[in-house]
Design a protein that fits this description.
Blueprint: H1 13-26, E1 34-41, E2 49-57, E3 64-70, H2 85-96, E4 106-112, E5 117-123, E6 129-130, H3 139-155, E7 167-168, H4 171-184, H5 195-201, H6 206-211, E8 214-217, E9 226-229, E10 232-235, E11 242-245, H7 247-253, H8 259-273, H9 282-298, H10 301-304, E12 307-308, E13 314-315, H11 318-333
Parallel strand pairs: 7-11
Antiparallel strand pairs: 1-2, 2-3, 3-5, 4-5, 6-9, 8-11, 9-10, 12-13
Helix pairs in contact: 3-8, 4-5, 4-9, 7-9, 9-11
Length: 338
């Protein structure tokens, strides 16, 4: 019943059962005895250990399927971009649940061990597929509409005390990604002569991002993090939620997609966020957001550490190429690259 892989990342079944029982008792479920029926490791696991657990709760004979994310004792927040499991649990509880929107049901967070390691317990969406892998042509449109409505609903909530725990992108945050990109790719200035100057030019776009209307953003709103189920988008993985311009999420969603899909997503996003019409500077903010979004990933040493091939020839990871290509295209549109 234990998921495949390192057992140290997952609790034993007895400990798991006790933790789940504590969560459901805390939610007011009478006689919240839990019987674990099946455990399956999540095939799309990334930063944290995750698994899909089927169980029975109390006297309910209907099996319940849960998605559990296990935290760690220590966590590197990637230069202030990403939070830990505690942080994500607060996003589900204080940001998402009050809106009643289509996101996985939040059951609770369990504090395990000493020092404490958190477990995030949410609903498992059976039959869902990552938006990027869906063959339904409406999947991307639905994702754009969802995030547009989400940004509209949260713009007025930004001053709320309940959301004070969310990180806010400031000048130092933005500038740090350009600086790290420049450092990581300094050895490739002959191959990409435009890249280092563009990193310097990004400073002129930071005021545009700081002055843009702020809302709650997902922070990594790529198709891989949006579950599509029966025509509905269910965004997950909220570790990178923050206060920032909503256009950053749209830039992430449409990254590397064909222009017709990008244009349709932009149109549906505008309609969903601003039914009475988008602001005149929407395109300018979106382009600045695209520059930032590419630099954020190119400037992550954990993802973009340069390698060297035969004869010491510098090489870049495959995942960097799409970000470089997209950044070059944005730079051309903005007149930063001849």
């Amino acid at each position: 019943m234990r998921p495949n892989g390192s057992s140290s990342r997952f609790p034993g079944t007895a400990r798991l059962t006790a933790g789940l029982a504590a969560i459901f008792r805390g939610n007011g479920t009478p006689n919240a005895g839990v019987t674990v029926l099946h455990r399956q490791r999540n095939p799309y696991e990334s930063t944290f250990a995750t698994e899909i657990v089927t169980c029975r709760v109390g006297g309910n004979g209907t099996p319940l399927r849960l998605f559990i994310k296990y935290g760690t004792k220590r966590f590197d927040g990637v230069f202030g971009h990403r939070g830990d499991v505690w942080y994500e649990a607060r996003v589900y509880r204080d940001v998402l649940r009050p809106l009643g929107t289509s996101t996985p049901t939040f059951y609770g967070v369990y504090r395990d061990g000493t020092p404490v390691v958190p477990w995030l317990v949410i609903e498992y969406l059976k039959g869902g597929i990552q938006t990027r892998n869906s063959r339904d042509p409406k999947a991307m449109v639905r994702a754009a509409q969802w995030i547009g409505r989400f940004h509209a609903a949260n713009q007025r909530r930004v001053p709320s005390e309940r959301l004070k725990f969310l990180r806010t992108y400031d000048e130092a945050y933005y500038a740090g990604w350009a600086r790290r990109t420049k450092e990581l790719f300094a050895h490739m200035k002959k191959r990409y002569p435009w890249l280092l100057p563009l990193c310097d030019d990004f400073g002129t776009f930071i005021p545009r991002l700081l002055e843009a209307p702020r809302t709650v953003i997902h922070g990594e709103y790529f198709g891989v993090n949006i579950i599509y189920q029966n025509g509905t988008s269910w965004p997950a993985d909220w570790q990178s939620a923050a206060i920032a311009p909503g256009e950053i999420d749209l830039a992430s969603l449409t990254h590397s997609w064909p222009r017709p899909i990008v244009r349709r997503c932009e149109r549906e996003y505008r309609r969903s966020r601003w039914p009475e019409g988008a602001p005149d500077d929407f395109t300018e903010i979106l382009e600045a957001a695209r520059v930032y979004m590419n630099l954020r990933w190119l400037g992550d040493p954990g993802l973009m550490t340069p390698r060297f091939g035969p004869g010491g020839r510098p090489m870049i990871p495959k995942r960097a190429k799409k970000f470089i290509e997209d950044l070059h295209a944005v730079g051309e549109r903005l007149g930063l690259i001849e």
